[in-house]
Amino acid sequence: xxxxxxxxxxxxxxxxxxxxxxxxxxxxxxxxxxxxxxxxxxxxxxxxxxxxxxxxxxxxxxxxxxxxxxxxxxxxxxxxxxxxxxxxxxxxxxxxxxxxxxxxxxxxxx
Length: 110
What we know:
Subcellular location: Mitochondrion
Number of helices: 3
Organism: Filobasidium floriforme
Oligomer: single chain
Family: Belongs to the PET117 family.
Number of strands: 0
InterPro entries: Pet117
Signal peptide: 1-22
Protein backbone atom coordinates (compact mmCIF):
# COMPACT_ATOMS: atom_id res chain seq x y z
CA UNK A 1 0.00 0.00 0.00
CA UNK A 2 1.07 3.51 -0.60
CA UNK A 3 1.88 5.90 2.18
CA UNK A 4 -1.18 8.08 1.45
CA UNK A 5 -3.56 5.13 1.66
CA UNK A 6 -2.04 4.07 5.00
CA UNK A 7 -2.49 7.59 6.39
CA UNK A 8 -6.07 7.73 5.09
CA UNK A 9 -6.86 4.32 6.62
CA UNK A 10 -5.35 5.30 9.98
CA UNK A 11 -7.30 8.56 9.95
CA UNK A 12 -10.54 6.73 9.13
CA UNK A 13 -9.96 4.26 11.97
CA UNK A 14 -9.20 7.09 14.41
CA UNK A 15 -12.31 9.02 13.34
CA UNK A 16 -14.48 5.91 13.69
CA UNK A 17 -13.07 5.11 17.13
CA UNK A 18 -13.60 8.74 18.23
CA UNK A 19 -17.18 8.70 17.01
CA UNK A 20 -17.92 5.46 18.82
CA UNK A 21 -16.39 6.78 22.04
CA UNK A 22 -18.33 10.06 21.77
CA UNK A 23 -21.66 8.30 21.25
CA UNK A 24 -20.97 5.97 24.18
CA UNK A 25 -20.04 8.92 26.40
CA UNK A 26 -23.23 10.78 25.45
CA UNK A 27 -25.34 7.69 26.22
CA UNK A 28 -23.75 7.24 29.64
CA UNK A 29 -24.26 10.93 30.46
CA UNK A 30 -27.91 10.86 29.36
CA UNK A 31 -28.55 7.71 31.38
CA UNK A 32 -27.08 9.34 34.49
CA UNK A 33 -29.23 12.46 33.96
CA UNK A 34 -32.36 10.37 33.49
CA UNK A 35 -31.62 8.43 36.68
CA UNK A 36 -31.30 11.71 38.58
CA UNK A 37 -34.81 12.54 37.39
CA UNK A 38 -36.09 9.26 38.84
CA UNK A 39 -34.41 10.00 42.16
CA UNK A 40 -35.95 13.49 42.23
CA UNK A 41 -39.40 12.09 41.42
CA UNK A 42 -39.14 9.52 44.21
CA UNK A 43 -38.11 12.24 46.66
CA UNK A 44 -41.03 14.43 45.53
CA UNK A 45 -43.53 11.58 45.96
CA UNK A 46 -42.14 10.70 49.39
CA UNK A 47 -42.32 14.33 50.50
CA UNK A 48 -45.92 14.60 49.29
CA UNK A 49 -46.89 11.40 51.11
CA UNK A 50 -45.22 12.66 54.28
CA UNK A 51 -47.04 15.98 53.97
CA UNK A 52 -50.41 14.25 53.45
CA UNK A 53 -49.77 11.91 56.36
CA UNK A 54 -48.89 14.86 58.58
CA UNK A 55 -52.01 16.78 57.55
CA UNK A 56 -54.24 13.74 58.02
CA UNK A 57 -52.68 12.89 61.38
CA UNK A 58 -53.22 16.43 62.65
CA UNK A 59 -56.85 16.44 61.51
CA UNK A 60 -57.52 12.84 62.58
CA UNK A 61 -58.66 11.75 59.11
CA UNK A 62 -57.69 8.71 57.12
CA UNK A 63 -55.69 9.25 53.94
CA UNK A 64 -58.06 10.18 51.16
CA UNK A 65 -58.23 8.62 47.72
CA UNK A 66 -58.88 10.98 44.83
CA UNK A 67 -62.69 11.00 44.75
CA UNK A 68 -63.16 11.94 41.09
CA UNK A 69 -61.10 9.04 39.78
CA UNK A 70 -62.79 6.65 42.18
CA UNK A 71 -66.24 7.89 41.18
CA UNK A 72 -65.40 7.50 37.48
CA UNK A 73 -64.16 3.94 38.02
CA UNK A 74 -67.29 3.10 40.02
CA UNK A 75 -69.53 4.52 37.28
CA UNK A 76 -67.69 2.55 34.61
CA UNK A 77 -67.99 -0.61 36.71
CA UNK A 78 -71.74 -0.14 37.12
CA UNK A 79 -72.17 0.50 33.38
CA UNK A 80 -70.28 -2.68 32.59
CA UNK A 81 -72.40 -4.70 35.03
CA UNK A 82 -75.61 -3.42 33.41
CA UNK A 83 -74.25 -4.20 29.95
CA UNK A 84 -73.22 -7.68 31.04
CA UNK A 85 -76.67 -8.38 32.48
CA UNK A 86 -78.45 -7.18 29.33
CA UNK A 87 -76.16 -9.29 27.13
CA UNK A 88 -76.74 -12.35 29.32
CA UNK A 89 -80.50 -11.90 28.90
CA UNK A 90 -80.17 -11.65 25.11
CA UNK A 91 -77.60 -14.41 24.60
CA UNK A 92 -77.12 -17.87 26.01
CA UNK A 93 -73.66 -18.27 27.46
CA UNK A 94 -72.71 -21.90 27.99
CA UNK A 95 -70.07 -22.97 30.41
CA UNK A 96 -68.50 -25.46 28.00
CA UNK A 97 -68.23 -25.87 24.29
CA UNK A 98 -70.70 -28.79 24.42
CA UNK A 99 -73.34 -26.60 26.11
CA UNK A 100 -73.02 -24.03 23.35
CA UNK A 101 -73.15 -26.67 20.60
CA UNK A 102 -76.27 -28.35 21.96
CA UNK A 103 -78.00 -24.99 22.35
CA UNK A 104 -77.29 -24.17 18.69
CA UNK A 105 -78.63 -27.57 17.60
CA UNK A 106 -81.76 -27.08 19.69
CA UNK A 107 -82.29 -23.69 18.08
CA UNK A 108 -82.07 -25.24 14.58
CA UNK A 109 -84.72 -27.86 15.44
CA UNK A 110 -87.27 -25.24 16.45
